[in-house]
Write a structure and sequence with these properties.
Layout (H helix, E strand, L loop, with lengths): L3 E6 L5 H9 L3 E7 L3 E3 L4 E3 L2 H9 L3 E3 L5 H8 L5 E5 L17 E5 L11 H7 L4 E8 L9 E8 L6 H25 L30 H10 L6 E5 L2 E11 L9 E5 L2 E5 L4 E8 L6 E2 H6 L7 E2 L3
Helix pairs in contact: 1-2, 1-5, 4-6
Length: about 300
């Protein structure tokens, strides 16, 4: 049996699932995505990655930042049997929630009920979780709380950023969604209640990326990886914002105070509350991103460099 599917998603991580549905035996009758938004210094209005792929495929598109009455009417007019949502960026409420015959399913990038909310991958990295995964579940009014159709675990790499992990999970999740959609079409899908204590993964802001050099190196390493690429890790230098794009724990014993920077064996090391971090790539204020060693060699000679002061 073939289903008529309304797909809702916006960022690049939603595109693999849309691709899988386009290639499936089912028909994508509507693609719902957020409206064009300004990008770059000139603020050029740019479609979402999902909108661009839908345009290439010649699919009907509904652009809306909120699933209000107008957007709901446009989606339901396509008479979908099932809604599939992946990182759309808005809530599905009644009457849209129960509009499709089979309701809506959601691809979530965590092992629910752990890390319900907007930033599950970032919180998993920040917390030092050793594994995460993808969950496909039935949407219900309560946030990320519906019965689970499928769950697949995935280890978190020791040096993996949230961005790299999310990209990997997006590919994994596309296949899982395809299997669940086929099972729903065939009448063989079974949803199981979520088991365990839920945790909440709220959206991270720029303030969450500010580095406190008095913390241990391991905690700073997790924070840098968690907020990369968004909202980004930062500190201050000479009164200006200084971005840390990449860093790794160092095992040297150089006696550096928290935030103090020095060049050792051609590597840029910074002191923390417990141990050292090696800076790999940085973006100094008013300059492009660059290798940390290139930045440090350009610093004034004989002046102490302290981050976060």
């Amino acid at each position: 049996m073939s289903l008529r599917i309304a797909f809702a998603g916006s960022p690049a991580v939603a595109v693999p699932t849309l691709e899988a549905l386009i290639r499936s035996r089912h028909e994508v009758v509507a693609v719902v995505t957020r409206e064009d938004s300004p990008v770059g210094r000139r603020g050029t209005l740019t479609p979402t990655p999902v909108a661009l792929r839908a345009e290439e495929a010649g699919l009907p598109i509904v652009k809306a930042d909120r699933l209000d009455a107008e957007a709901t009417a446009a989606i339901l007019a396509t008479q979908p049997d099932l809604g599939v949502i992946v990182a759309y960026g808005g809530l599905v409420r009644e009457p849209l929630l129960s509009g499709p015959r089979l309701g809506w399913i959601n691809l979530h990038f965590s092992l629910l009920p752990r890390w319900r909310g907007a930033a599950p991958v970032q919180h998993a990295v920040l917390a030092g979780d050793r594994e995460t995964g993808v969950t496909v579940f039935q949407l219900v009014p309560e946030l990320d709380a519906g019965p689970v159709y499928a769950r697949v675990a995935e280890p978190i790499g020791r040096f993996q950023t949230s961005g790299a992990l999310l990209e990997r999970l997006a590919g994994l999740g596309a296949g899982v969604v395809s299997e669940v959609v086929d099972a729903l079409a065939d009448g063989t899908a079974t949803g199981e209640p979520q088991v365990g204590d839920p945790s909440v993964a709220g959206k991270l802001t720029a303030a969450d990326g500010v580095l406190d050099w008095s913390l241990p190196a391991a905690a700073l390493d997790r924070r840098i990886r968690a907020v990369t690429p968004e909202p980004g890790a930062s500190t201050t230098l000479d009164g200006h914002r200084f971005k840390v794009l990449e860093a790794v724990p160092a095992h040297d014993t150089l006696p550096l105070r928290p935030g103090q920077v020095d060049l050792y064996d051609r590597r840029v090391l910074v002191g923390t509350g417990d141990g050292l971090l090696e800076l790999i790539r940085v973006t100094p204020f008013g300059r492009p991103q660059m290798p940390a060693a290139d930045w440090y060699r350009g610093r004034p000679r004989g002046e102490e460099t302290v981050l976060g002061g």
